[in-house]
């Protein structure tokens, strides 16, 4: 079924809310009352419900199938967590209530901080960052503040070529230049190259571990030592923490700062692109250089420090952090416990290695195993078939699967990064493997199959979309009378 | 363990397929001694036990549902229709990722397009992005964007700007040692920022209504900016105000940043919220954040994709317009649904109710001895001056089971001139009974 | 995507719940501890969620499209009502709590009873019946009790041929024989035939009004007078109350008892086949002959009478009625108010007549209008096309619509009973009409189209199912190793 | 009005298409004077106002969440996993009709098939239907079914049968003046019903555990029934008990009726609940209620349909096996989901916890002076005798903010022998603290 835009469905004279009459008072708007209409459409509640239900039906979701996006950790989102986040007294409290009236809310933050510190083996955590990239920003700000405090202005950040795009973008936001570190043939940081790049103007290294090739940086302690010897800090991108949660403490590896994507490892729902939450754990050398606000234990219970001392580097967002995500993440942690979280890491790594082992003969793994929680393949197995990584991914859609992450990391050609997560059953992973084997064989067999790959997907609400057209003459909003592409309104109802 | 998919038998089989003797063989790259630390954390628990723990924490808070409640200052209590929370919890919205595979993400993409349109319309701007973290981060990103556009570095921040927004901007600018000028606190609402604009000024950031509730016509400020080649960034913390008042776009704003929480998003102790970001079409390639654009598919049917990603970090890396990756998708969905339910008539009426009730309370309060309403013109929020420190008045009201407002000292610590100032907000959720209780309690307390 | 049965997905060693260890006590089961296994499968929570999400995706629903089932009143189900039914203190109270601790719950029942009495103009209402048919049973029990009280045993119930199947079935359950009343050419009760059938052994007439042909029984007052003159009672089937709610009070028409389907007129969700709720309003002559329990105003507030006086005819179910449905229905009523409910009737009747007017030239209306809230067509327009009513209905499915009610009422040939309800927008009804016009024209054009109709539906999770096979050798449950029809387990994951 | 689809303009256009001057022309068949009565009812209200009204009513109740809670007697407080309520609220389940169009109802049909299988399994029977209204109505339908099968009329009802079940059966049988024999109240749990079975007896209805909590082996009663050609109907009010005890099917039951509320369905002040109904395969065509059966579609793929509808009222009319039409679909779904989450291991453990806690409380209570535990063997519920009337003890406990149980006098009014009897239930939701509070309070009260 086609579904028109709300602006095409709506009409004056309908509403989805009933409101009482406004008090009959003389306005005090100082002559700034709006003139003219906004242009918003009028829809009844049934129309709104149907519109969004129908839209939802055009989406793939974890709840409906395996979602093997590497580096995204698309795991099961427990409904208990949704329920907890909506408890009266938790979901509805205001950030500026007197602290005596929000002791329970502060306790959530404090407890979650405790779990994060214990799981990472780090002494401090900054809770307010709103997402992973925001956490990176927090980490670099802390590093910058620490350097500044010792009067040591440095200008360069080292980051591997395989880094998430957020790493260089964050470094740039903090005024740093980014200097890439090459990788070895086995997908790890090249220590010699690193040594060569280190120097008195290097503020920090930003490393992802497990890295974006799905591998554990086995020389990580050496890296830490080298970085610290150069007077720099070690920032670790915690995007892949799911592989090691409960199993390895980053604090034991010499790390100074690491953000944790609560929406990955701790299962707060991705929600079609957020909201996330990215608390940053900090080492002893950084623990005073934090943003406000933060929670401390005071004489009257928990207290909220909203205006820091001289070492605090400032404020990162409107209020105290992503409370709704904190509740969900804490519920997730309490549900798993120490035993369950360790099992999460183990099962996620087990599943990824199982995928690697089950596909290595028909696809081309980029590196020797063992991998961590994601398995990286490149497009060598598609060589000369006429089928690209993109075609392969789109063909998966017609088989009922969301594709894996493609063309990332950039260090291998036509990358396909598969992360099954610990939520999947073996039956589910087996079925996925069977499908991929079938597609790989079809691609290699060539002939008519190639056209099938190139035409995929065909069973979806839309087929491949013209991204060039979208970018060349951007249409970013609906305008009255501006039906860009023809759509039959009657058919769309 | 209820969330795990593998049985013990599965694990054995899988290890065998992989060809390793045990799970730790897969962790062989972990440095010696760092594997399997003892963690001083409790073991796994069932739902009932977890629910009990959270219920106990919830009980330690005072819920706005249970008391007369008058807090605002950047976060607002509004009624959210039941349909909103129902729809955003649909699996297909809640448990999907960023719509990078558009063929199976048209649901998310279409609502983002609708969201962008709604935000453009209510702010009176040409285009809007697919959301930011919240109002303050939107403001900070707006300053960076103005710097890119004007190739100037200085930001002038109004004395009526919410201190959290001011500090968030300042913190980000500090990273690159960019200058910013924060104007003196503007309680009275009569500051003249035009004198602070010079040829190094990238933008002026002004909030309307101000943090003290003052509503102002920004037209002349916009003209002053334009004359000096600076951009006008207007921040809105209470987005329902745009149901009733002239939008920033109509006053000449170049960028509008706003907190969208009032529409569809619960208070949730401060987050997650949804930052709105709108600007002129000509600046679109300098915008931060995701953008959804219309296009056609292979069969010529209208469809939607994320677009202009050449601005974004995953493509442009250190040259990106922002480092933002995850944004506030699900909150944007809640906003879109709530706004769809309201429509033109509903948003207008909602704003009228908010304003009408605020006027009613202002009139009641102004009859109290020693109490004065600060702003001349306001929407649903206004500062009042009291004959004693506002913070202690608020504490006394708590004892009477009233959450009476935000003392200005909480936002401007150390500013003696604001010690007796209280910020009071009224929304459609306040009954006349609530207001009478506040007035009666203040009478006793003052 | 195929979806296996939970019994095929499940495996020992998995669970969807975590429970603490049971107390270590000596059991007091008297040797009756279960021996052997039950056979239930083990599934993780993610598996359970995915299973039921996928199953749901095989269903049509009001939230996704127009659901024009005549006589079923598939209207919008507001989410506010779901929220209210789950409020702590309402959704979680026990039926046997001391009445002092459930005054609010009793108030819900009392308020709803008040609305129902006012809307129907009747002095009493029995709240406990669990569904429409259960309400009919309650009504007939009340009639039987009233007759018994006056020592007047009667054995016959009159019901029109067009009656819902529940009417004769209910009458039989009460030991009555059912005597059909024929209809006139314009679809109403034949008064002469009725007069001829009335006699001293007639306990009651059971009439649906508006009737199942979608027509208002214009002689209803005469019918009531005739029935009462014969010493019998007038039971009205309230299934079609949506057409007249707020607009006509059954109490003004001479009715003695009428059930109200809260799950139709008052929008409690149908839920794939229940639960429903069927309170019965009663006239003065029946108001003492009620089932227990019921709510009365007492000196300590509201009281619950669980053991009635001599006139009460007994008990109909475990507890006090379908409280969850009461809350939803009351929220619906309060949301609409008197003005809104009247509008419900008007708009539902308007929409049905609009459908009738818009299709009368291409389909064959069974009766002259105006109709009430549903429009009845028969299959004369398909004569000699080779397309049956069933084929026509199945073809609608491929167009994205749930079919209307077909082959009911029995009084016209190949009936198609269309009820759009007041929830639909005009655009939505227009699109539906356009689709039906197109199909009607296709059917009449014949040729290759006939095969399309006969093969429909083709775009659904399943095509037409073999109902004969299902009934001949019933397979009513899964058994280990008994995969009746072949299903590939791997493909189904 | 937020739920209505038509605008005023639409209405005008539609009236024009129909060709009538106004809406009342469509109601011309309504007798003069009966159209458009004045209704003394309030006008429409917004969500916020409706929420306030219900919140006020909810506050007048004591929620089991807020106090130690020990009520059972046919309705049980259990923890429901969050996934259950989430899933049953999915639009596609909540807002669909009875699956009469199987091609677009496979979701509903498949879960009904799974439900039937689960019910068969736990009751130890061969087949089950797709649900009834509740336990009591299931029991009444079972008696009618036994009458059809045996062509006899008399029903013998155990003295341990829940009085609501007994009365529901009796009320239905009264309609056709069928005889039923209710055995004397069986507090001690030692009745011998076999003497009441004669050659006019269609069935014996016995509850296990009994309303007083007594658990019994029904094997010999089953033999006695069989010997005299009568059917044994076993009623179960607390379905979780079958996680731990021998199912009725294994004791020789011919029909099992049960209240399924304990699995997945909230207390909701008594309804809606879900009646379970299971029997032997040979009796399937005499069963009441909907049945879902497996079949294949045109392409040979497994699929499900409602079947054996030749038993049902919409086909058979006055010859139907029951008048039931709407049943309890959504509650059956909740049951199916909750049972799927539990699985074999979960159901067993849940039952062990219930029983274990009940044993613990029984031991604590039996140490109170004047208190005696009635049943020898029980599951999670047991009668106790007190030294004073149970109803007044319960009232005194209410004052101490404890909901302490159901006084037998509420169920058996006027029966002096039961005046001092209290029914006490313990489930996994009770903490040790709850139990200690009850014991301490009883100590004070008695």
Automatic annotation (TrEMBL), chains B, D:
Q: Which InterPro entries match?
A: GcvPA (IPR023010), GDC-P_N (IPR049315), GDC_P (IPR020581), PyrdxlP-dep_Trfase (IPR015424), PyrdxlP-dep_Trfase_major (IPR015421), PyrdxlP-dep_Trfase_small (IPR015422)
Q: Name one GO biological process term.
A: glycine decarboxylation via glycine cleavage system
Q: Which CDD domains match?
A: GDC-P (cd00613)
**Keyword terms:** Oxidoreductase
Q: Does the keyword Lyase apply?
A: no
Transferase as UniProt keyword = no
What the entry lists under NCBIfam families is as follows: PRK00451.1
**What name goes with this protein?**
Probable glycine dehydrogenase (decarboxylating) subunit 1
Q: Which lineage is the organism of this entry classified under, starting from the top rank?
A: Bacteria, Pseudomonadati, Pseudomonadota, Alphaproteobacteria, Rhodospirillales
């Amino acid at each position: 079924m086609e579904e028109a835009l709300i602006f095409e469905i709506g009409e004056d004279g309908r509403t989805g809310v009933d409101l009482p009459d406004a008090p009959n008072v003389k306005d005090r708007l100082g002559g700034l009352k709006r003139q003219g209409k906004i242009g918003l459409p009028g829809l009844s509640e049934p129309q709104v419900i149907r519109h969004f239900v129908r839209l939802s039906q055009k989406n793939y979701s974890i709840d409906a199938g395996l979602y093997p996006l590497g580096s995204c950790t698309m795991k099961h989102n427990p409904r208990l967590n949704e329920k907890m986040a909506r408890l009266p007294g938790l979901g509805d409290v205001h950030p500026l209530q007197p602290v005596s009236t929000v002791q329970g809310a502060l306790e959530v933050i404090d407890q979650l901080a405790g779990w994060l510190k214990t799981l990472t083996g780090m002494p401090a955590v900054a809770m307010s960052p709103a997402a992973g990239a925001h956490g990176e920003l927090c980490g670099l700000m802390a590093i910058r503040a620490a350097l500044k405090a010792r009067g040591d202005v440095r200008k360069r950040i080292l980051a591997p070529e395989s880094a998430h795009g957020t790493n260089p973008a964050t470094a740039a936001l903090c005024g740093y230049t980014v200097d890439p570190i090459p990788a070895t043939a086995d997908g790890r940081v090249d220590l010699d190259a690193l040594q060569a790049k280190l120097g008195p103007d290097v503020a920090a290294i930003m490393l992802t571990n497990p890295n974006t090739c799905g591998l554990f940086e086995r020389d990580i302690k050496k890296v830490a030592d080298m970085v610290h010897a150069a007077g720099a800090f070690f920032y670790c991108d915690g995007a892949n923490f799911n592989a090691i949660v409960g199993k390895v403490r980053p604090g034991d590896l010499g790390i100074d700062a690491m953000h944790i994507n609560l929406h990955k490892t701790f299962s707060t729902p991705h929600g079609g692109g957020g909201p996330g939450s990215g608390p940053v754990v900090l080492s002893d050398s950084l623990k005073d250089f934090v943003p406000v606000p933060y929670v401390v234990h005071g004489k009257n219970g928990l207290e909220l420090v909203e205006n820091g001392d001289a070492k605090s580097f400032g404020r990162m967002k409107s209020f105290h952090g992503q409370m709704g995500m904190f509740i969900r993440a804490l519920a997730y942690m309490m549900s798993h416990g120490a035993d369950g979280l360790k099992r999460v890491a183990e099962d996620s790594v087990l599943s990824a290695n199982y995928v690697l082992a089950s596909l290595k003969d028909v696809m081309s793994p980029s590196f020797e195993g063992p991998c961590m929680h994601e398995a990286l393949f490149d497009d060598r197995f598609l060589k000369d078939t006429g089928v690209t990584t993109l075609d392969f991914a789109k063909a998966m859609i017609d088989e009922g699967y969301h594709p894996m992450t493609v063309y990332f990391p950039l260090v291998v050609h036509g990358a396909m990064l598969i992360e099954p997560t610990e939520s999947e059953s073996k039956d589910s992973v087996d079925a996925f493997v069977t499908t991929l084997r079938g597609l790989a064989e079809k691609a290699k067999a060539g002939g008519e199959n190639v056209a099938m790959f190139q035409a995929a997907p065909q069973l979806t609400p839309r087929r491949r979309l013209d991204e060039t057209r979208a970018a060349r003459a951007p249409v970013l909003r609906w305008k009255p009378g501006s039906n860009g592409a023809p759509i039959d309104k009657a058919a769309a109802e | 363990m209820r969330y795990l998919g593998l049985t013990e038998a599965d694990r054995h089989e899988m290890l065998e397929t992989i060809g390793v003797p045990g799970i730790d063989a897969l962790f062989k790259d972990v440095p010696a001694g760092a594997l399997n630390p003892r963690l001083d954390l409790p073991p796994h628990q069932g739902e009932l036990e977890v629910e009990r723990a959270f219920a106990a924490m919830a009980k330690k808070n005072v819920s706005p549902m249970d008391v007369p409640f008058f807090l605002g200052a950047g976060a607002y209590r509004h009624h959210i229709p039941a349909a909103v929370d129902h729809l955003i919890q649909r699996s297909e919205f809640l448990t999907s990722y960023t719509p990078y595979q558009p063929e199976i993400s048209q649901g998310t993409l279409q609502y983002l397009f609708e969201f962008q349109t709604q935000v453009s319309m209510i702010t009176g701007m040409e285009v809007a992005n697919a959301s930011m973290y919240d109002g303050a981060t939107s403001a900070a990103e707006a300053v960076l964007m103005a710097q890119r556009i004007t190739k100037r570095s200085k930001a002038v921040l109004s004395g009526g700007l919410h201190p959290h927004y001011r500090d968030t901007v300042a913190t980000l600018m500090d990273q690159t040692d960019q200058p910013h000028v924060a104007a003196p606190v503007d309680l009275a609402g009569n500051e003249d920022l035009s004198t602070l604009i010079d040829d190094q000024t990238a933008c002026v950031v002004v909030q309307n209504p101000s943090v003290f509730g003052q509503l102002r016509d920004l037209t002349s400020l916009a003209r002053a900016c334009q004359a000096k080649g600076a951009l006008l960034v207007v921040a809105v913390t209470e987005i329902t105000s745009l149901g009733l008042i002239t939008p920033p776009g109509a006053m000449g704003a170049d960028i509008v940043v706003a907190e969208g929480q009032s529409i569809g998003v619960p208070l949730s102790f401060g987050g997650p919220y949804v930052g709105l970001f709108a600007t002129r079409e000509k600046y679109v390639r300098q915008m931060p954040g995701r953008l959804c654009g219309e296009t056609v598919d292979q069969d010529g049917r209208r469809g939607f994709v994320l677009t202009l990603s050449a601005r974004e970090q995953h493509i442009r890396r250190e040259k990106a317009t922002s480092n933002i990756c995850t944004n506030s998708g699900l909150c944007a969905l809640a906003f879109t649904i709530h706004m769809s339910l309201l429509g033109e008539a509903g948003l207008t009426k909602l704003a009228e109710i908010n304003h009408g009730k605020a006027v009613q309370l202002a009139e009641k309060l102004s009859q109290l001895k020693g109490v004065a309403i600060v702003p001349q013109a306001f929407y649903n929020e206004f500062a009042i001056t009291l004959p004693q420190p506002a913070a202690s008045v608020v504490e006394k009201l708590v004892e009477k089971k009233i959450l009476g407002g935000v003392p200005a000292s909480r936002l401007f610590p150390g500013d003696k001139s604001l010690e007796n100032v209280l910020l009071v907000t009224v929304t459609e959720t306040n009954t006349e009974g609530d207001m009478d209780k506040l007035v009666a309690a203040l009478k006793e307390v003052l």
